Amino acid sequence: MEGSIAIAETVRLCKPQVIPAYPITPQTHIVEGLASIIADGRLDAEYICVESEFSALSACIGASAAGSRVYSATTSQGLALMTEVVFNAAGMRLPIVMGIANRAISAPLSIWNDQQDSIMMRDSGWIQLYAEDNQEAIDMHILAYKVCEDYNILLPAFVCFDGFILSHVYEPVDLPTQELVDSFLGPFNPYQKLDPKDPISFGMYATPEYYMEFRYEHDQAVHRAAEAIKKYGKEFGEVFGRDYSELVVGYKLEDAETAIVAMGSICGTVKDAIDEMRAEGKKVGLLNLRCFRPFPSTDVAKALAHVNTISVLDKNVSLGAKGAVAIEIKEACYGSNIPVYDYILGLGGRDVRKRDIKKIVELAEKGEGDMFYGLREEVL
Amino acid sequence: MALGIGCTARPGNSRNNKTGSWRVFYPVMDTEKCTKCGTCQLICPEGCINQNPDKTYSIDLDFCKGCGMCAEECPDKAKAIHMVKEEK
Q1: Chain B closest CA to A211's CA: distance in Å?
Q2: Where are the alpha helices (DSSP H) in B1-88?
Q3: Domain A248-379 falls in which CATH fold?
Q4: Contacting residues of B for A222, CB less than 8 Å apart
Q5: What is the per-residue pLDDT across A257-308, written as a single tens digit (0 to 9) for each?
Q6: Which residues in chain B are closer than 8 Å to A204, comparing Cβ atoms?
Q7: What's the CATH class of domain A3-240?
Q8: Is the CB of A199 less than 8 angstroms away from the CB of B10?
Q9: How far apart are CA A223 and CA A306, in angstroms?
Q10: Which of B55, B9, B1, B46 is nearest to B27 (CA)?
Q11: Taking the CB of the first residue and of the last residue of chain B, which one, N or C, has fewer CB atoms within 10 A?
């Protein structure tokens, strides 16, 4: 099944009541799929064809505040256009789940994959989960609703999956049954909602006496989400047989001397490269970062405490600084004296192959890092 | 006041939000000098000057932001309002 269709079918199982969406490559098949599902009578939901992404997320806010479970999906420029509303949805603490088919940001125009778009929303107060494959992408949608709707959390979440590499790829997935999803998720029971008989306003004005306290409480909720993801991730495993109780997942990491840290679909390539390097006697392991916000600093530090070198693969760059993931990993490992090397790679759809991963491990062993990897020097 | 999650508020909540805390200067009304012309009430952009039953005016310092327009516009023959620096 195509990744996007698997996601659309999974969203159907989560029974959102309102889906405001605007198509944009490479997210289009998801919202197209959902439109078909609703038109065919397979999901009882309101599909709102909006005129822009700004409107899509604005309609999500309205519908969620009115007490509906809502879904939308976007990518790249669409997410950029939503920016103001992204921060509003988070500040209003609405449990909206949105799929992000990760894509590069203009200019120059690129429809291809990297993770700059969701990284751009790093500080927005949304939960950010990153899927390695389509099975994770669909599982994380179900898990995200469970976490977001917890009264102790009440946050929106991005479920991020690499555009084209996952969204357009056909691979086998285990699509759960409606009964299982119903038993795990249950109907949406809003903490508070817009009601003419008992009126409230969301996202009110906060004077300097209150604004900081609202931000503090929001920050605390994002931090609390780490434990909630682990708790419901474990519960998810008990119901569906696939465990999500860890925010970071190691692969051959226990005895590794060199660690690679990565997020998203690239982890599959890294695992294959590690298998080949292990066969040659190189002790390399992977730390797959499933959750970028909240950032699991303690888990990262614990998982990497024994390695000699850390290589971070960043499919994004904070221009003028480093890759966003490397900055966080350095912070998590502060005081450990383990060198952390950053490799910016795969931007705008540049392929990353097993041989690239091996080359990066060689570079890290020589102490060469903090670079754009794989630049075509001849065109510079 | 416990914060509402998502900065939610019930109707009428703006009355609880004492915006007078923004003030640097506060107006002082001399009811002896006041000619009861009502200019201050008309000019106040925050609507926080109210007429008393005896036709004099009082200033609601819970919401007055201290802009000083009442003191500036009080007619020359009265000059019944002057601004005083807040001591915080």
Answers
A1: 9
A2: 39-43, 69-73
A3: Rossmann fold (3.40.50)
A4: none
A5: 999 999 999 999 999 999 999 999 999 999 999 999 999 999 999 999 999 9
A6: 7-9, 13
A7: alpha beta
A8: yes
A9: 26
A10: B46
A11: C
